[in-house]
């Protein structure tokens, strides 16, 4: 590199000196010409061939002049042997006394060969001198740069390549180099390595903590008995624990399919399920609901409670799905519910069950009529023959009423010895006939076996009738109306029926 | 006061003599019988600088001059060539060796010049105008 530079510089320098030398030589020729011009003009003035020859000889004696000639106005006064004419410098000569008069010319042909040779020699000499001066300097500089910069940098590079960031390895810093730039760089790198080691150490311990924590969380998730899924908002299932896998596979659900379509396939109300999940995703809030599924393998009903929890992590939405098999609880609840609505003695709806049914009719604005039936002279039977007789009679009445009423009608034990029946869309005429029929069936005696033989037991009933919505707008008012009608019978005729009248 | 007046008068007189001397210009003369009536400045330079030793009509000329260092010679040559004396001397010193130029013949005084011109038919010389005689003919006057 430095050598190439030197060569280029030497070349440029050579050309420069050469051209300068050429220019200087032609300048010198011109000067020589000027110097002899006064003598030459005298020679031309006097047309003195001897003087002219002297001038020409004088000129030619310069080795940079090849040939010369002195010409007065028309005549050649003197010329050197080699003089040919072209390529020469011409200097006009004037009359030594009358300066305006041109009296001749000197022709001087410079010796270009010698001039160029000289110029070349001088230029070469210059280059040689320059090289003699510069080359050692370059070599010295190169050596200095090598010892002071390149070698230490290479060593530094080699050392750096061996060092693993974060380890305890450090650069060896030469004591003498502490004060120069490379030494300072090495010290700087070492302090950087110190920091890197500390940071790596912190990072390492932090990572260990994270791994430990993750292990625990994973354990918690994997071993949890609560079936749990982690789902991306597009529906891909990212994580599924063993409990969830067992539950879903047991239900015939493909866990590799997208959620919630894989569940919807066996859901009894897939539309509601989809709306539920969509709403949960849209509203980004915790939602819980219960859905009924059919297990395709066993054709049995499965109830699942689904809780969806939305979480935002790194700008992406995920939702955690917690499943719970609530089939057992659901059937138990259903049974309990059913039981709660039934009278345990007669198997009819109890007052609570009847109220639910009637409230449903009222909510739907159905037209119906209800009869409140209160048994006459029931207490004495209870008192004389005991509770067993009373219970048997109540069962008998219940059977009679159930037999008289249709499957869409409501029949219930309203309380103690009170019953209530209701029928949808019934005319006054039909209602009268029905009340008649009911009275007759209630009046049917029942044979009762006891210690002293058997007795025919028979009761009557007072029936009050009210219509919805003519008589009252709500259930309470309607029952009160029927009650009023019933009491009016109780006070007067008994074993009869009447319609409520305001 | 009288001294000052004397001084002024003296100065005035000196000025007059100087002017007179300046008016006393040189003239170039030849023998009365010389056929050349008028010479040009160039012809005179060529004669006195030794280029030619002949009159324009071809007749040989004998050029007369004063001794070196004569005030008239200095005045004449410098006025004629318009060159300083040093250059003229340098010219002669170069010409001396080649032998091509002919040197004027040197005389000591105006009288000697006058006498030589008057007695030599092909002579040419110069004298102050005031010294002119009947025996010579003026061929050149310096224009004032």
UniProtKB/TrEMBL annotation, chain A:
It comes from the Bacteria. The chain crosses the membrane at residues 130-149. SUPFAM superfamilies: Nucleotide cyclase (SSF55073), PYP-like sensor domain (PAS domain) (SSF55785). GO terms for cellular component: membrane. Residues 147-201 form the HAMP domain. PANTHER family: BIOFILM ARCHITECTURE MAINTENANCE PROTEIN MBAA, DIGUANYLATE CYCLASE DGCP. This is GGDEF domain-containing protein. It comes from Pseudoalteromonas rubra. The lineage of its organism: Bacteria, Pseudomonadati, Pseudomonadota, Gammaproteobacteria, Alteromonadales.
């Amino acid at each position: 590199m430095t050598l190439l530079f030197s060569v280029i510089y030497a070349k440029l320098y050579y050309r420069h000196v050469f051209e300068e030398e050429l220019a200087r030589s032609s300048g010198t020729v011109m000067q020589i010409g000027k110097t002899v011009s006064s003598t030459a003009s005298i020679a031309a003035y006097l047309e003195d061939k001897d003087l002219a020859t002297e001038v020409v000889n004088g000129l030619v004696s310069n080795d940079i002049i090849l040939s010369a000639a002195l010409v007065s106005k028309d005549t050649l006064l003197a010329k050197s042997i080699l003089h040919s004419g072209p390529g020469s410098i011409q200097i006009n000569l004037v009359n030594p006394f009358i300066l305006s008069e041109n009296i001749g010319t000197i022709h001087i042909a410079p010796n270009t060969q010698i001039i160029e040779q000289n110029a070349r020699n001088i230029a070469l000499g210059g280059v040689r001198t320059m090289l003699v001066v510069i080359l050692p300097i370059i070599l010295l500089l190169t050596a200095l740069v090598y010892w002071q910069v390149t070698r230490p940098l290479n060593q530094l590079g080699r050392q750096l390549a061996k060092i693993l960031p974060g380890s305890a390895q450090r650069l060896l810093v030469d004591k003498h180099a502490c004060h120069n730039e490379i030494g300072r760089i090495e010290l700087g790198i070492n302090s950087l390595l110190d920091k890197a080691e500390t940071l790596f150490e912190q990072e390492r311990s932090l990572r260990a903590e994270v791994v430990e924590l993750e292990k625990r969380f994973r354990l918690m998730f994997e071993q949890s008995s609560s079936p749990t899924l982690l789902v991306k908002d597009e529906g891909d299932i990212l994580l599924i624990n063993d409990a969830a896998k067992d539950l879903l596979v047991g239900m015939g659900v493909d866990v590799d399919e997208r959620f919630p379509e894989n569940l919807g396939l066996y859901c009894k109300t897939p539309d509601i399920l989809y709306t539920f999940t969509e709403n949960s995703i849209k509203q980004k809030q915790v939602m819980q609901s219960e859905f009924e599924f059919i297990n395709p393998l066993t054709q049995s009903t499965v109830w699942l409670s689904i809780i969806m929890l939305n979480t935002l992590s790194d700008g992406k939405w995920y939702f955690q799905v917690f499943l719970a098999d609530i089939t057992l609880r659901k059937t138990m609840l259903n049974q309990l519910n059913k039981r709660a609505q039934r009278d345990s003695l007669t198997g009819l709806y109890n007052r609570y069950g009847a109220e639910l049914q009637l409230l449903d009719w009222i909510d739907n604005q159905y037209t119906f009529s209800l009869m409140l039936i209160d048994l006459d002279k029931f207490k004495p039977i209870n008192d004389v023959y005991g509770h067993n007789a009373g219970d048997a009679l109540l069962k008998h009445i219940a059977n009679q009423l159930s037999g008289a009423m249709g499957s869409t009608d409501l029949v219930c034990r309203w309380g103690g010895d009170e019953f209530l029946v209701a029928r949808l869309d019934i005319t006054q005429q039909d209602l009268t006939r029905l009340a008649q029929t009911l009275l007759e069936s209630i009046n049917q005696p029942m044979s009762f076996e006891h210690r002293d033989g058997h007795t025919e037991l028979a009761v009557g009933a007072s029936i009050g009738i009210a219509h919805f919505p003519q008589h009252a707008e709500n259930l309470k008012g309607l029952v009160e109306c029927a009650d009023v009608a019933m009491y009016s019978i109780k006070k007067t005729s008994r074993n009869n029926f009447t319609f409520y009248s305001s | 006061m009288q001294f000052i007046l004397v001084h002024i008068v003296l100065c005035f007189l000196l000025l007059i003599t100087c002017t007179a001397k300046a008016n006393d210009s040189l003239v170039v003369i030849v023998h009365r019988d010389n056929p050349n009536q008028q010479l040009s400045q160039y012809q005179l330079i060529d004669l006195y600088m030794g280029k030619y030793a002949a009159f324009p009509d071809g007749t040989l000329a004998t050029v007369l001059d004063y001794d070196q260092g004569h005030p008239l010679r200095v005045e004449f040559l410098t006025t004629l060539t318009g060159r300083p004396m040093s250059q003229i001397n340098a010219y002669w010193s170069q010409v001396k060796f080649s032998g091509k130029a002919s040197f004027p013949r040197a005389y000591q005084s105006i009288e000697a010049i006058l006498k030589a011109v008057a007695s030599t038919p092909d002579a040419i010389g110069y004298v102050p105008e005031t010294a002119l005689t009947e025996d010579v003919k003026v061929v050149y006057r310096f224009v004032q």
